[in-house]
Task: structure prediction
Amino acid sequence: MLATSYINNNPDYIPELISHVQCSTAPYLKLSSETIPMPKVQARFRRLRFAHAAYVQDALENTTSEIKNIKAYLLTALYNAPMTIGPYYSARVKYDASQ
Result:
């Protein structure tokens, strides 16, 4: 379903990153400046749904900043997606309503 929603892009990188994290045997994962135990990261990634992947894809398409380490950026964005998706879309609705 993600592939049909983002037909002009290759959305396979998101499921591949999620799979990479879920199959990892590393004890920790460094996200931003934090070192997080892998079981905690894997538990958070198990909560991800299509809406989270679409949100990360939308945010990536709308960014104008240079991203030097895209893998680290995406892993951090996916990890934070369950916490940030609600406020992100609320802010967008408020902004759109004010226009």
